[in-house]
Amino acid sequence: MVKEFAEAVVGVEAEELVEKMVPIVLPRLVVSRQDDHHAVQILFELAKCLKTDMVPLIVNWLPKVLAFSLHRADRQDLLSALQFYHDQTGSDNQEIFSAALPALLDELVCFVDGHDLTEISQRLSRVPGMIKEVARILTGAEDLPGFLRNHFVGLLNSIDRKMLHAEDFSLQRQALQRIKMLIELMHSQLNTYVPKLMVLLMHAIDKEFLQTEGLSVLHFFIEQLASKSPSSMQYVISQVFAALIPFLERYKENHSSHLNKVVNILEELVLKNRIILKQHIREFPPLPSIPALVEVNKAIQEARGPMTLKDQLRDIVDGLNHENLNVRYMVVCELNKLLNQRRDDIAALVAGEVSADMDLLSSLITSLLQGCAEESRTIVGQRLKLVCADCLGALGAVDPAKLKSFTCERFKIECSDDDLIFELIHKHLARAFRAAPDTIIQDSAALAIQELLKIAGCGASLDETVGTSSSMLKDKCADDRSGMNGRGQRLWHRFSDYVKEIIAPCLTSRFQLPSVADSTSAGPIYRPSMSFRRWIFFWIKKTDCPCNWVSCKHI
Questions:
Q1: Which residue from 204, 269, 418, 469 has the least number of CB within 10 angstroms?
Q2: pTM for the whole structure
């Protein structure tokens, strides 16, 4: 019957139709088998149509079956499904959930099969309780932050891939709902995932049709972070300021709901975080003088205090060396305004002979030259280069003899593997991870960190804050404190606490490079319209291709 229906009505092969039916039909058959004695026979027939046995078929779809059972109001449906799998495979409840865990969490959180918004909201409201049920079965506890710790990045990546970058606008809005839910679930562990969450939220508020939801979730995230991990606020406050300035410029004359949300976020950042504000005030530009920002501007002015031109320039030099591209651009734009407003004072400073002033000018010019060499893969990067060039022009012809010469700090190539790994992670990859403008760059940095930590023998047991879900890993690693494990411990303890916090997810992450054909194996490495950055990448890849990892160490 299935074969005739598939070919006559749908116009496809029977096997193709069954493959599309199984994800929807199979969970219902497993759950209903206690009331329908034909259900098991139908499962056998479906397996036969797909040229497989029933047990491999139901095991392949285990995550979807468990998710379907957990969503059912009657808990007996879950117990029935677990009993069925026990009868067929001999596995107990813990083994069944362990086998399905990453994919099961993805099914519960990142489902895309809902169309009615009310139904989707109802399903999402039940998800925390379902995850607690899974945590209770696997760990005997309901510590959701600890339980989700090793899966949080994977869930965010899945939301990003399946929903936030989907063509369906409705799915993109739903993605922000899921992110908000995960922020709430991870309350005590949020500080570890600040860079990942910031990249996703910055992406959302950059899209006009997502700005309302994006700003709301950003405000919620900042409230949660300030409540659960106040020390982490210092790492987001400048980035959020840089992202919100364009909204203020755009809406300072036309009042809008977006402006209200932006003002609420700024009040949360400024009025409730005065100590952190004072520490990072040099990175903040003056905000537009509009009635809604009176209190915020007053707090910023009090934190800044009276400042001379030299004080302003020193703060600008610090801001120009900030790791975030948007913050650097925001600071250099303020410098450009300052140079034009204080033209005579700047000229007097340049013409002077005071040694301290020359040191300040040297630092400023060095920072601007570095800005001119900024990567230009993004519009902001291109604008930063141009504004830095404008600022150098506004400074005028400074006598080179007065400037302090700076030696380029180079890393010693002849070093141990562990010194090289530490240098790469601490000074380059962790910075790239924190400042990444999108998830592609951030995940690339995370992959590199993950692989370097593996080479050094760093495992999940080195993260003191890993929750109970990884207790088995801790027990396993406790018996092996020598060799690679001892080496990994020594490297791990060299990192600062903040860097440890940022790279901790890379101890248990499972990033993999996509398997793609190597386009550099044949043909020229230089092609028309190729950037220098792209050329140098192909050149290094071409050079390394014939070498195995031992040979690559000596390149």
A1: 418
A2: 0.80
Read off the DSSP letter of residue 429.
I
**How many angstroms separate the CA atoms of 166 and 440, rounded?**
15
Coil, helix or strand at residue 80 = helix
Instruction: Return the ∠ at Cα 382 (arms to 378 and 384), rounded to 5°.
Output: 115
| Nearest of 515, 513, 514, 508 to residue 450 by alpha carbon | 508
414 Cβ neighbours under 8 A, 6+ residues apart: none
> What is the rounded distance in angstroms from the CA atom of residue 295 to the CA atom of residue 324?
27
Q: Where are the domains of the chain?
A: 1-111, 306-408, 415-462+486-512
Nearest to 126 by CA among 115, 111, 148: 111
pLDDT tens per residue across span 388-436: 999 999 998 888 877 776 555 555 566 788 899 999 999 899 988 988 8
- Count other Cβ atoms within 10 Å, centred on residue 329: 24
- Extract long-range pairs of 141-146: CB within 8 Å, 24+ residues apart: 141/468, 143/467, 143/468, 144/185, 144/186, 145/185, 145/186, 145/187, 145/188, 145/189, 145/467, 146/189, 146/466, 146/467, 146/468, 146/469
Tally helices (H) and strands (E) across the chain.
Answer: 30, 0
Which tens digits make up the pLDDT trace of 131-175? 999 999 999 988 899 899 889 999 999 999 999 999 899 999 999
> Dihedral through CA 250, CA 255, CA 261, CA 266, nearest 10?
70
With CA atoms as reference, report the closest residue to 288 among 319, 251, 256. 251
- Phi, psi for residue 318 in degrees, rounded to 5: -60, -45
Residues 204, 180 contacting (CB under 8 angstroms): no
User: Phi and psi of 405, rounded to 5°?
Assistant: -85, 135
Q: How far apart are CA 249 and CA 266, in angstroms?
A: 14
Give the type of residue at 424.
Answer: L
Residue 236: HSE in the Cβ half-sphere, 13 Å Cα cutoff: 31
DSSP 497: H
Contact between 173 and 129 under an 8 Å Cβ cutoff? The reply is no
Percent helix, strand, coil in the chain (nearest 5)? 75, 0, 25
Backbone angles phi, psi at 456, to 5 degrees: -80, -5
Query: Are the C-beta atoms of 405 and 358 separated by less than 8 Å?
Result: no
The CA distances from residue 526 to 262, 538, 540, 544, 553, in Å, are: 47, 8, 12, 16, 25
Q: Dump pLDDT digits (tens) for 96-121.
A: 999 999 999 999 999 988 778 888 88
Which of the pair, 484 or 372, is modelled with greater confidence?
372
C-alpha closest to that of 461 among 497, 417, 504: 504
Q: Which two tokens stand for residue 252?
A: 């300072």
Residue matched to tokens 């760093």: 458
CA separation for the pair 139, 148 (Å, rounded): 12
Question: Could you count the other beta carbons within 10 Å of the beta carbon of residue 548?
Answer: 8
Backbone phi, then psi, for 257, in 5-degree steps?
-65, -30
